[in-house]
Write a structure and sequence with these properties.
mainly alpha, 269 residues, 70% helix
Length: 269
């Protein structure tokens, strides 16, 4: 089967959800407990400074969301890497595209929902416990967390910066999907090292020229977007498409017996 059928895709996604339901619930409940205990600890330590407690808890919440989501994206193939699941998965009556998209949807949409639910539930339980046992006001961390996530300074450069950040997120997602599809072990660590190394190398490369992407100033005092931003935007689009294409090509060669470290040996062809 080479065509895409929405009904087959839904059946495949349902299989992925049912097989991994226990693991999903375990990590969701664990994240929920971790968020609750973390917020309780922060609000307990800074009980006399409620505003500072909210700011610190929100900062930890941002870190939790970023690391949690990126780890989920890089685990796109980990849930079907066990031999029994891999055998059943390969025998599903669905095309390669349907199987691949079901895994990507699972780690992207379903796991994102689980991370958000665990964060909201942990924050709500912390408010309830602090209100009942300590008499605190019902102050949620989520509004401050949303403000921390949103970049500042969109007054003049809102559209270029938003486009840049959107494409950066898509590129980051494609990198973790590619790493999770190709590598069987340490995909999150390897991809994270690469993504950290790229901006570090670029910053050293452009620092002598004093290039600023979003805040360069002309002779009349006006602030403009550096044209190189649009070049980077195009690069993000091209590289993201290549990453998704390479991920699917690797997935199409996914076999019952795979390499110890990778799901596909790029040197065997």
């Amino acid at each position: 089967m080479n065509s895409f059928n929405f009904n087959r895709f839904c059946h495949t996604l349902r299989w992925v959800l049912s097989v991994n339901f226990r693991n999903m619930m375990f990590w969701t409940l664990g994240s929920f407990v971790g968020v609750f205990l973390g917020e309780m600890a922060v609000f307990g330590i800074f009980s006399q400074l409620p505003e500072k407690s909210v700011n610190i808890a929100a900062s930890f919440g941002v870190i939790f969301i970023v690391i949690g989501l990126l780890a989920c994206f890089s685990s796109v193939m980990s849930d079907v890497n066990k031999k029994t699941k891999r055998t059943a998965f390969l025998m599903l009556p669905a095309s390669n595209l349907e199987k691949f998209l079901s895994l990507v949807f699972y780690v992207t949409v379903v796991w994102t929902a689980c991370v958000i639910v665990s964060l909201v539930a942990g924050d709500f339980l912390r408010m309830a416990v602090r209100a009942v046992f300590y008499g605190d006001e019902w102050v949620s961390v989520l509004p401050q967390l949303m403000r921390d996530i949103q970049p500042d300074g969109f007054a003049r450069l809102w559209l270029p910066e938003m486009l840049f950040l959107l494409l950066l997120n898509v590129f980051t997602h494609s990198m973790y999907i590619l790493g999770g599809t190709w590598l069987r072990k340490y995909a999150f660590v390897c991809v994270s090292i690469v993504l950290i190394a790229i901006p570090v190398i670029m910053s050293y490369a452009i620092s002598p020229a004093h290039i600023s992407l979003f805040s360069w100033q002309d002779a009349h005092g006006g602030h403009y977007v550096n044209p190189i931003v649009y070049v980077i935007d195009v690069a993000f689009v091209v590289l993201s498409c290549l990453n998704y294409w390479a991920s699917f090509q690797i997935f199409k060669h996914f076999e019952l017996i795979t390499n110890k470290w990778t799901n596909y040996d790029i040197f065997k062809r």
